[in-house]
Here is the input.
Amino acid sequence: MTIHDTHPFLDPESERDPVRRFRGRLGGAVTLWTSGSDHGRAGLTVSSLMVAGGEPARILALLDPDSDLTETLQRTRRAVVHLLGWRHRDLADAFAGVAPAPGGAFRLADFEAGDWGPRLVDAAGWAAVSLESEQAAGWSSLVSCVVDDVQLGEDMPPLVHRRGHYVRPTD
Here is the structure.
């Protein structure tokens, strides 16, 4: 076995998508979106989003159009957007589909059923949202969701993803 100091399957620099690399250097707080019920629930890790204040407030996000979450959100028209912290990095990887989750990612943490979908019990905060609109944006689906409710829990540094890695909080 050889130990590499770089990712062994990384494309050569000349073949990497410059827009994807630009986006990766922005960094972003990692959220977990969940939707559905025991009869069909889905979740997805999302860091491409923004919150727009107003009456009503909205959350806009770029979702994978082929994901189970997008399909479930289209069907139910509701979701829960969770703020994640450092302790949630393995959960985030499982919902992103880059780490194993025997029995499914929902078995890796405690979730409560709710009117907008499964709610992560130990999230730093969460927003209940209703799907307002959806349109194609590049290779993603741009969703605009109305914020129906917000609950804030323990204030903790956010889980931040930058250039393909989580950034460890300094405080």
Q: What stands out?
A: The chain has three helices and twelve strands. The first strand starts at residue 28 and ends at 29.
